[in-house]
Every structure is written in structure tokens, then in C-alpha cells.
Design goal:
With 450 residues, the chain is an alpha/beta fold. The chain has helices at residues 22-29, 53-64, 77-85, 100-103, 148-159, 176-184, 195-201, 229-242, 246-256, 279-286, 293-304, 324-329, 340-357, 364-377, 379-391, 399-408, 412-415, 427-447; strands spanning 5-7, 31-36, 44-46, 49-51, 68-73, 91-97, 106-115, 117-122, 140-144, 165-169, 190-194, 208-209, 218-225. The chain has 3 domains: 5-112 and 219-256, Periplasmic binding protein-like II (D-Maltodextrin-Binding Protein, domain 2, 3-Layer(aba) Sandwich); 117-209, D-Maltodextrin-Binding Protein, domain 2 (3-Layer(aba) Sandwich); 279-447, Lysozyme (Orthogonal Bundle). The chain is built from 18 helices and 13 strands. Residues 1-19 have low confidence and may be disordered.
């Protein structure tokens, strides 16, 4: 998120109507209907649990009033406004642009984010970091055709007198986050992104620099209907009281500071055919699935590098990276989630559950890839990708075909498809997970006897 977070000035304290108190009605029902969009910044489902920067802030607000959240997803910002006008939700919990026209229809409220566009460039040792937009003259900048980033770089080219080499990606399966990854890998030299999106992606790719601002600041905020002043006031007061508290700062830290990319290197073999201190537990519980114990060891290293007390940015806990809700559904209490024996035992139960879900895939090596994908992202996303594969004439039991649709679930036209039930997914992360765990498993098989 842009560093400047201010209280939105558009939501003024308003005298409550004697015959209508919108927020009181919400409190009486115990539920709040919230409009948002799927995306890595706003709302997504990860390992079966709801996540997203905006969502976690929203949940903190709702929890403070004991409110249940009912999420309704919109396809785009225009649809968000239409749904709010049609009273399909009480609140837009998504940072929509603050405009004079919008102020005529809505009350902007909560935190006001001041965002701007930045240049994304690689910062490996030996790379030259551009410090001024004039240094882009003669450089190659890539963007998605007909996007706001495309328009901005063209305007910037005019402002500097021309000379920027502008290239466009026309493939409909490429996102801004894909371009950022391509910069990180050295496949393209530069791209443009919103600052908050770039900052989030820097937790995946530590070798990118996002310090050069190339766009003008844009204010954005949550919104309610003008007829709901008490709700706007409650949101404003909550932000004012909580924006400096540790819990609020922790949400920012999880999304914009904590690394989300574990190392891909194999764990060092400890010697004498031993992979980790937990080999005996992997052997014991792998037999209950049944799977090769070295596969469980590979998953554990990817999740925690065998650290028993690790908690990931998303809340995955312990040596096997169990999500609390998943662990609870399998009978493991929060008090026991960091116990290695309990953690590995429950992880084996989860793998057994996933093995049953994908039992229609007869080829075991293929089935393992589906199990790994579901272990990382949740079985709902894998089911969506298989449904998309079947819809478009591909084989839902072949990983090479299904993984293409898993990657496409980062695009609205695919995750909004009626056959999809779990919404947005950062699919490249799951594909990398399957690849990394599979390669490490093969490495272990070559080093340690079964």
C-alpha cells in the first residue's frame, strides 16, 4: 500500500436521521453485506481460507462489532458502483478512485490510499538502477496493450520528448504481476505498475526496485451510499482508532513486508540417509496415506524448512504449514498445531483426503501433482482449473493441461467463469510450488533409500 494512509475527508460526520439509522440496522441483523473484487490486493481464497489485504482490514472492523461478513464479488469497478446503487451491498470494501463525480453519489470512507505508478526494474548486483524518468529514453518498457499502464507510459514518453521504446504484451493470459515476474527473471527490462501492487510483489521478488515514480498520485478509498452516513461514520471512527494499533500494522506487514517465496534449493542431506530430524515421523504417517515419506519431507521443507514454530504470511503453521481452519477440521487444536508429531499426523490426513478427492486420476505421478497443487492453493482452485480444462476441451486428469488453466485463474474472464467457484488465484505461485516440491522429491529419492 502507498505509504501515505490518511483518513478519508469525504466522509463527514453526519447527523443521524430520526427515522433511519443504517448502521443500527446492520448491527441488529448481525451481518454486513460487502461488495469487493477478487484479486491479490483485495480478496481471494487461499488453502480454503479467505484472505486479501482489504478483506483482513474489513474483517477486523466487522469483528469489532461482532458482524458476519457476506461477500459479493463484482467483475470490475463499474459493476461495483452499480451493485452499490442497486443496494446489493452495504459497503464497497475496495479502493475505488476518489472523484468529484463520485462524491455526488457516494460517501468515501475508511482509509484513503494515495497510490501512484512506479517503474519496476531489476536490482541484481551489477544492474543499473534508473533514478529519473529521463533515463528511460532509449530504454525498453513493456506493458499490457490498452491498459492504464500503457496509456501512462505513452503520456510519459510525450512528456520527456519521445525516445522511450514502448512494447506491448497482447496475450490475454498475461497480467501486470506476470510482467513484474518477467522483470525479476530478466526476461524484460522494465514495466510499470501501481505502487501498492509493486510493493506486494516485492515480497515475492526481492530483486526488483520500485523506487522511481512515473505516474501522478491517485486517491482511492472505500465507499457507501450517501443514504448510509452512520455506517460511513462508524468506519471512519474505527480507522481513526485502529490505524496505529499493532494488529493493523501486522496486516500491512503480512502483505507488504513478509517474504512469500521460500527457497527452492533442496534441503541438505544430514548424512547416513537422513533428510531431517523428523524422518521417523514422516515414515510413520506416510504409511497411513499411503505415500512415499520422502514426498512428505519435501512438502515440509517447502513449507517450513523443517522449522517447527514457523508461521507464514497467510497463517500456515508448523513444520507442514497447516492452515488453522484446515487443522481444526481434521481435529487438531490451535494449542497443538506446532507439535511436530501432531502437525505431521494431521498433514498426512490432509494428503489422504486430497488423495481421495483426486482418485479418478489413475496415474499416481499425475495424481501427486494435483495433490501438491491442492495442498498449496486448496482443492477448490484445482477443481476450478479442472472444470475450465473440461469446458475448453482439455483433459482434466492431465496436469500439463490443467496447470495452464490454474495459471489463467489470475484473470477475471477465467476466475469469473460460472464453472469456477473459488475466484482469483495467483496461479504461478502454485505451479512453482508443484515444480519445486516435485524436483526436491526426485532429489531425495536419488539420495535416500525408501
Amino acid at each position: 500500500m502507498a505509504a501515505c494512509l490518511l483518513l478519508a475527508s469525504s466522509c463527514r460526520k453526519t447527523e443521524k436521521s430520526q427515522d433511519e439509522n443504517d448502521f443500527q440496522k446492520i448491527l441488529e441483523t448481525g451481518e454486513i453485506n460487502v461488495l469487493t473484487m477478487s484479486g491479490s490486493m483485495s480478496y481471494f481464497i487461499y488453502k480454503g481460507e479467505e484472505r486479501g489485504y482489504e478483506y483482513e482490514i474489513l474483517k477486523s472492523f466487522a469483528d469489532s462489532y461482532g458482524l458476519k461478513i457476506n461477500i459479493k464479488l463484482a467483475e470490475n469497478e463499474t459493476k461495483l458502483a452499480e451493485m452499490l446503487d442497486e443496494k446489493e451491498g452495504d459497503l464497497v470494501a475496495y479502493n475505488i478512485p476518489v472523484t468529484n463525480e463520485g462524491k455526488e453519489h457516494y460517501l468515501y470512507c475508511g482509509q484513503e490510499a494515495v497510490n501512484e505508478m512506479v517503474l519496476v526494474q531489476r536490482s541484481n548486483r551489477g544492474d543499473t538502477i534508473l533514478k529519473d524518468v529521463t533515463e528511460l529514453i532509449g530504454k525498453d518498457v513493456w506493458s499490457i496493450d490498452n491498459s492504464k499502464y500503457f496509456n501512462r507510459i505513452h503520456n510519459l514518453n510525450d512528456e520527456v520528448g519521445g525516445g522511450i521504446n514502448i512494447h506491448t504484451i497482447e496475450e490475454d493470459s498475461i497480467t501486470v504481476e506476470d510482467l513484474i515476474e518477467m522483470v525479476s527473471k530478466g526476461q524484460i527490462p522494465y514495466t510499470v505498475s501501481d505502487a501498492d501492487m509493486a510493493k506486494l510483489n516485492r515480497t515475492y521478488y526481492r530483486n526488483i526496485d520500485i523506487s522511481l515514480v512515473v505516474g501522478h498520485p491517485q486517491r482511492s478509498s472505500w465507499a457507501v451510499r450517501k443514504s448510509n452516513p452512520a455506517l460511513a461514520e462508524a468506519i471512519n471512527i474505527w480507522f481513526q482508532e485502529n490505524i496505529s494499533k499493532p494488529a493493523y500494522k501486522q496486516i500491512n506487514k503480512r502483505y507488504f513486508e513478509m517474504s512469500k517465496m521460500p527457497g527452492d534449493e533442496p534441503a541438505p542431506i544430514l548424512g547416513k540417509g537422513q533428510i531431517s530430524p523428523f524422518d521417523a515421523l514422516f515414515r510413520k504417517y506416510a504409511r497411513t496415506v499411503p505415500v512415499d515419506w520422502r514426498l512428505m519431507a519435501s512438502i515440509a521443507y517447502q513449507e517450513s524448512k523443517f522449522h517447527t514454530n514457523l508461521v507464514s504470511w497467510a497463517g500456515a503453521s508448523g513444520v507442514m504449514g497447516l492452515m488453522p481452519k484446515t487443522a481444526s477440521s481434521l481435529g487438531l487444536s490451535a494449542d497443538s498445531i506446532f507439535n511436530p508429531d501432531d502437525n505431521i499426523r494431521i498433514a498426512a490426513q490432509l494428503i489422504r483426503r486430497l488423495n481421495k478427492i483426486f482418485n479418478s486420476i489413475d496415474d499416481e505421478p499425475e495424481r501427486i501433482k494435483f495433490i501438491l497443487a491442492a495442498y498449496n492453493a486448496g482443492s477448490g482452485h484445482v477443481a476450478d482449473a479442472r472444470a475450465l480444462a473440461e469446458k475448453y476441451g482439455s483433459n482434466p486428469n492431465n496436469w500439463a493441461e490443467v496447470e495452464e488453466f490454474l495459471k489463467l485463474k489470475s484473470l477475471p474472464e477465467y476466475y469469473s467463469d460460472p464453472v469456477c467457484k473459488s475466484g482469483y488465484l495467483r496461479g504461478t505461485e502454485t505451479l512453482n510450488y508443484v515444480r519445486s516440491v516435485g524436483e526436491r522429491y526426485a532429489y531425495y529419492c536419488g539420495k535416500v533409500k525408501e
